[in-house]
Amino acid sequence: MDAALKLYQSTIVAASAIIIMNVIGSYVSAIGAGLACPDWPLCPFPESFPVLMEFLHRVWGLVVVATIAISVLRARGIGDVGGFRAAKLLVYTSLLIVLIQVALGAIVIFTTLRPEFVALHQLLAQVTLSLQVAAAGITWSTASRRIEAEKTSVKS
């Protein structure tokens, strides 16, 4: 169950990183700093607060991708039985969606914040968060049931 615990932990870390990213992204939008960095993925040296916040949003995106990639690597080390199969599928799907999310972030910049792309960018962020949270829940419940079953069989 050690692999299950590691997967659970990594999905919780990834979900936390996504929540932080959502807060940063919402703040960037609220202060009107979405185009503070005119290029993508580069950004000039943060010399003003709006540029700093947009730069932080982009850098934190790398953290989010890295935490989800770690979840994928840990999911590979877990068996394909029961709920773990579903958790793995959710984690793999979240990696695919977050990569689409990154590309969509570029489209948002190149289209100068077209509302439909901004909305889709936010929607995919919520979908990615939901997938990671669902994977964490499934991993936790599957591992807990297996531990209980092992305890019961040992007592018998």
Task: Kindly give the count of domains.
Answer: 1
Overall number of strands = 0
How confident is the prediction overall: mean pLDDT?
Answer: 92
Morphology: elongated
Stretches with pLDDT under 50, minimum 5 residues = none
Helix content: over 70%
**How much of the residues is beta strand, in percent?**
under 5%
- Secondary structure tally, helices: 4
Q: Determine the structural class based on helices, strands and strand pairing.
A: mainly alpha
In sequence order, what are the helices and strands, one letter per element?
HHHH
Termini separation = 21 Å
Largest sheet: none
Radius of gyration: 19 Å
What does the model show?
It contains four helices and no strands. The protein has 156 residues and is mainly alpha-helical. The chain has one domain (2-155). Helix 1 (2-30) runs antiparallel to helix 2 (49-76), helix 2 (49-76) runs antiparallel to helix 3 and helix 3 runs antiparallel to helix 4. The longest helix is centred in the C-terminal third of the chain and has 41 residues, at 115-155. The protein is elongated and about 65 Å long. The two termini are 21 Å apart. The mean pLDDT is 92.
